[in-house]
Each structure stands twice: as structure tokens, then as C-alpha cells.
Amino acid sequence: MDNEGKKILNLLKGINVNTICVSGLCPNLNSCFKNKSLTFLILGDACSRHCRFCAVKKGGHFNSELLKDEPQRIRRVVEELGLDFVVITSVCRDDLPDKGVGYFTKTVQEIKGVSKDIKIELLIPDFGSDQVLLRKIVDTGVEVIAHNIEVPQPLYKEIKPQADYFFSLEVLRIIKKMNPNIVTKSSLMLGLGETYSQVISTIDDLRDTGLDILTLGQYLSPSVNHYPVKEFLSLEKFQLYREFALKRGIKVVSSGALVRSSYKAKELYYQVINQNILSFKN
Fold first, then answer.
1. Cβ(216)–Cβ(238) under 8 Å?
2. Which of 236, 217, 239, 220 is nearest to 228 (CA)?
3. At 19, is the secondary structure helix, strand, or coil?
4. For strand 183-190 and strand 213-218, is the pairing parallel, antiparallel, or unpaired?
5. Four-residue CA torsion sign, 41, 47, 49, 54
6. How far apart are CA 189 and CA 153, in angstroms?
7. Which residues contact 106 (CB under 8 A, 6 or more apart)?
8. Which helix (H) or strand (E) holds 269?
9. Helices (H) and strands (E) in the chain, counts
10. Contact 86/78 with Cβ under 8 angstroms?
């Protein structure tokens, strides 16, 4: 890791701020930190769900006292790094009455308190597709709301047993219906044994929600205890899926082995905005 990356890592450790970049063992960590690109992980570093693909710690007691100033600590990092585009995700905390929505809203308020010009992308859990909770997320005024479908529906029972494929589609659909101006985004991991027809069907389902951005990346198993990689996709296959998604009407598609849901988030957002501007002019 270069000096800039080490500086950011030390800053995060010093202020005790989590990122999915570190907790999720992202292969792009070095290159992203070098460009001051990172994804904050709120609600602590332990998830209440037990998805078989994810490197994030599982279980654990939610310590509200320890996390009460988490939004303020994230604000400090945003200020110190001078970030103008911020991505925030979270672990799932199904054990909380509001499933963690309040922490999202407080964190957004803190960051917008630095500058209203800062663009924010939220990568949210499904919140049980609860419309009241989703309305609170939409009303934060962020520019992008992402929710990852992760895998085709037939793989959910084995890989995401506590999640629901149709809930996830409904989350994206509800967000777009509540505010059509919000950019919506989702992600698919590939290489977990999915078939070509399953990927195509999932892309169509996502398109039907009004999705703006889709990312497609290679699954890499975090350890021997996680779900194993079943296939390493070729560049040609990634390109094939990308072209299909674009033809089906998804505005922006990033597809490749090292692509992750928040990879080059700022660039993908502005690609959508530029397309919208061109469409308006025409």
C-alpha cells in the first residue's frame, strides 16, 4: 500500500471508523484508497445475517452506546479527506426496531452538514421492504440509493438464506416510485454457479424496477469456510452480460472481474447524470 493509502488507513483506525473496503476484504482497496475513494460501513462491523459469501463478521451484540457518535466520526473523516462524493453502507441489524435506518439518516445529516454540495450514495439492506423505513431513506435527500440483489433467485436459499430475492426487487421498485429522480443501483456477483439464463432473467427483473446502474463482478471466496468459487468468468462473458444489460435499457453498466458494487461509484453516478442531461436536451 502506498503512503496515501496508509494515511487513510491510519486515519480510519485512529477515529475508529469502519469501511466495507477493509471488512469485506475488497481487492481494490489499495487503488481506491489512493484516490480517496472508500465506502463507510455503519452500525458497527458485525452483521445479524449469515450470508455465505460475505467476509464481514457475523452476529455479536449491538452496542448502541459505543456507536452513538459514529455519524460524527464519519463526518470527521469526510472533512479531513475533503471528500465530495461519499458512499455509505451498513451491516444488517435486523435486531433493531428500525433496522438501522436512524443511523443512516443521522450520518447523512452530518455529512450534508459539512457541505450540501457533497453527493451521497447509500448502499442499504432490504429493511424487510418496509415502506415506512424506505420512505425515511428516500427523504434523506441523497443522490443515489443502491441495494444489491447479489445473486439470482434460485441461489438465495443456499447463499443468502435470511434474505428474499423478491423483497430486494421490491426495495428498488419502491425507491424509484417514491422519487423517480433518485439514481438507483444494484449489483450481481458472478461465479457462484449461476447459469446464463439465470443471469439474464435477473438483469431483466432489475431492469423492470427502473434501475439506473448495474455492476457485475467476479465473486472471490473470502476463505475456505465461505461459499466456494464455482467459475472464473472470461472477459468476453463479462462483456456479453454488459451488452445485454445496456440493450435492455439499464443506463450504466460496469462489468469486470474486479468490479464491486461501490467501485468507481462517483464516475458511474455522473455517467447517469450526463445521460439524463443529454436526454433532456434532445
1. yes
2. 220
3. strand
4. parallel
5. positive
6. 12
7. 71
8. helix 265-281
9. 12, 9
10. yes
Which three three-digit cell numbers place residue 92?
444488517
Report how far apart, in Å, the C-alpha atoms of 35 and of each of 2, 224, 264 are.
11, 31, 10
Give 139's DSSP letter: T
Burial of 219 (0-12, 13-18, 19+ CB in 10 A): buried
Residue-wise pLDDT tens digits, 128-154: 889 999 999 999 999 999 999 999 999
181 neighbors 131 (Cβ within 8 angstroms): no
Which residues sit opposite 120 in a β-bridge? 86
Query: Is the backbone of residue 212 left (phi > 0), alpha (psi -120 to 50) or beta?
Result: alpha
Q: Identify the DSSP state of 228.
A: P
Helix, strand, coil % over all residues of the chain, rounded to 5: 45, 15, 40
pTM: 0.94
pLDDT in tens, 178-217: 999 999 999 999 999 999 999 999 999 999 999 999 999 9
| CA 171 to centroid of chain Cα atoms | 13
Of 201, 207, 157, give the one whose Cα is nearest residue 186: 207
Which domain range does residue 170 map to? 3-281
Cell of 54: 460475505
Tell me the CATH number at 46. Answer: 3.20.20.70
The three cell numbers locating residue 108: 447523512
Using a pLDDT cut of 70, give the percent of the chain over it: 98
Size of the chain in residues = 282
The x, y and z cell numbers of residue 266, run together, are: 462517483
Contact call for residues 209 and 218 (beta carbons, < 8 A)? no
Scan for cell 442531461, then name that residue: 277
Report how far apart, in Å, the C-alpha atoms of 106 and of each of 69, 102, 109, 113, 270 are.
Answer: 10, 6, 5, 10, 25
Report the domain count for the chain: 1
Distance of alpha carbon 192 from the chain centroid:
19
